[in-house]
Specification:
330 residues; 11 helices; 10 strands; globular
């Protein structure tokens, strides 16, 4: 056992596997000195750090998270490494937003429901605040989706998984368009734009806002063209009048079907007040230059009076984590 490995074993114990990603396995763990439950991402390394090194995405995630200290961004607590592995230790949050939306569905009913109004406003404000904090530090998340948004037992929302995040550059540089999970991908990415900014995150925020309001994804496409069509069927087919750069994008086709736009009240079953519908429509504008920024969204009527410290209890989550923290390290 190496000195680093022994140090890791002395500090944390592994409890169970939570999931597996492209670069390694995520475990639930426990700090041996405090009994605090943590999440440990174990990164696979090659035999020699000198020849292969740490994956670039992991280096980016570490460097960015060290700059992002905010109540609505998951906290990186520690980094432990030796010659064969790298361990990222995060605060532990039991449930993601997808799990929470599933949790609140009525038992025995096939009808999906959204988050109750007061809780919805709190979660939307927290999400917008976390993303705005990142953007103010010139960081694009580029993969905002329910699985990458965590919810604590006290109703605190945390942005997570910054593996695809990038620093914004000025002037704008060319980025890959193969980012953001399909259902939450902005139209400029679907139409092939290689230069984009924080508006791609704002679109994702709008999609998740709608999903939280109804319990149902707003644009659940099966392929890129299906995703484009689903957006058009609800927002209407875009025109050069509403989006001047549209016809210059690589994947735009002038022969796309023509659909009229639907009222936003019909997209959310009229569950949102007028101020909420205005915010949603502002986040889901086709033209990224006209799309509302997350910083400006915080000042809208729907969010400006929400107490930033307001949270709500989710007993089933709180109880599970509390019981585990009371266990001895063993």
């Amino acid at each position: 056992m190496t000195e680093d490995n022994a140090q890791y074993t002395a500090k944390y114990r592994r409890l169970e596997v939570l999931g597996e990603g492209a670069y390694g396995i995520v475990y639930k763990g426990q700090c041996c000195s405090t009994n605090t439950i943590v999440a440990i991402k174990k990164i696979r390394l090659y035999d020699s750090l000198l020849t292969e090194g740490v994956p670039r995405a992991v280096i980016r995630e570490i460097s960015l998270l060290r700059e992002l200290k905010h109540p609505n961004v998951v906290e990186l607590l520690n980094v432990v490494n030796d010659t064969r592995r790298l361990l990222l230790v995060f605060e532990f949050v039991l449930m993601d937003l997808k799990g929470y939306l599933d949790l609140i569905q009525p038992v025995g009913s096939n009808r999906r429901v959204g988050v109750p109004p007061n809780k919805l406003r709190s979660l939307v404000r927290q999400m917008v605040a976390g993303v705005a904090f990142c953007h103010e530090r010139r960081i694009l998340h580029r993969d905002i989706k329910p699985h990458n948004i965590l919810i604590t037992g006290e109703g605190r929302l945390k942005l997570a998984d910054f593996g695809l995040a990038r620093l914004l550059s000025f002037p704008a540089r060319i980025y890959t368009k193969e980012v953001v999970t399909l259902w939450y991908r902005a139209p400029e990415l679907l139409f092939g734009s290689l230069t984009y900014g924080s508006s791609v995150d704002a679109w994702s925020v709008g999609c998740i806002f709608a999903e939280m309001a109804t319990g149902i994804p707003i644009f659940p496409g099966q392929s890129e063209i299906d995703q484009i069509f689903r957006i058009m069927q609800k927002l209407g087919t875009p025109t050069s009048e509403m989006w001047p750069e549209l016809e210059t994008l690589p994947h735009f086709q002038p022969v796309f079907p023509t659909w009229p736009s639907c009222p936003f009240s019909s997209l959310t079953s009229s569950l949102l007040p007028p101020s909420g519908l205005t915010l949603l429509s502002s986040l889901l504008r086709y033209d990224p230059k006209k799309r509302l920024t997350c910083t400006d969204a915080l000042g809208t009527d729907y969010l400006k009076d929400v107490d930033s410290e307001y949270t709500f209890d989710i007993p089933s989550i709180r109880r599970t984590v509390t019981e585990e923290q009371m266990e001895s390290p063993g």
